[in-house]
């Protein structure tokens, strides 16, 4: 399957075996629950996005640097997003759940920027995702035709916040 870890490797775990093992555990447990009529087969199969979530968590746990951990977090977000419309969580279907990963990725990029990356892109992604969610869910009776001013306000607010954060960072950088 894979090479055993070398003595100089700080992580003595065989990651490939761990990933394959977790996938087999999740799929096998779902199949066993369905086989013994503990969970209807359709319901057990609707939990397949949890495999993606588990893979992302394994990537986060096994990452050796922050950029790979962030990549694992993207996989977790993708799995959670898939889980929501597949199961109708929160009344979301495919037609209304698509803005959720935009919001989650925006939050991720704001909270966990790459080295040297400002948070502006994450703020804009968060603003656009929020506008798309408000519009697709028809919150406050808004639709695509009536909500475009809200998009301008949200992007403007994101850009102002980005400028403020950059100025604060520059000021704090000069003082240290």
Helix and strand topology:
Elements: H1 15-35, H2 41-45, H3 49-62, H4 66-87, H5 94-97, H6 99-111, H7 120-136, H8 148-175
How would you portray this structure in words?
By secondary structure, this protein is an all-alpha fold. Helices cover 70% and strands 0% of the residues.
Strand percentage lies at under 5%
Helix content: over 70%
Radius of gyration: 21 Å
Principal-axis shape equals flat
Mean pLDDT: 85
In short:
By secondary structure, the protein is mainly α. It contains eight helices and no strands. The N and C termini lie far apart (51 Å).
Keywords:
mainly alpha, single chain
């Amino acid at each position: 399957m894979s090479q055993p870890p070398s003595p100089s490797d700080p992580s003595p775990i065989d990651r490939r075996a761990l990933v394959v093992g977790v996938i087999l555990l999740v799929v096998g447990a779902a199949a066993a629950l369905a086989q013994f009529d503990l969970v209807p087969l359709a319901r057990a199969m609707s939990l397949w996005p949890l495999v993606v979530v588990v893979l992302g968590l394994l990537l986060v746990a096994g990452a050796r640097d922050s950029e790979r951990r962030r990549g694992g977090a993207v996989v977790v977000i993708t799995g959670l997003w898939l889980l929501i419309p597949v199961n109708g969580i929160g009344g979301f279907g495919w037609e209304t759940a698509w803005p959720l990963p935009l919001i989650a990725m925006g939050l991720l990029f704001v909270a966990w920027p790459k080295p040297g990356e400002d948070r502006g892109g994450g703020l804009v992604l968060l603003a656009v995702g929020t506008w798309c969610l408000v519009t697709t869910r028809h919150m406050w009776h808004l639709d695509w035709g009536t909500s475009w001013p809200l998009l301008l306000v949200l992007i403007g607010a994101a850009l102002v916040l980005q400028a403020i954060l950059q100025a604060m960072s520059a000021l704090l950088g000069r003082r240290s």
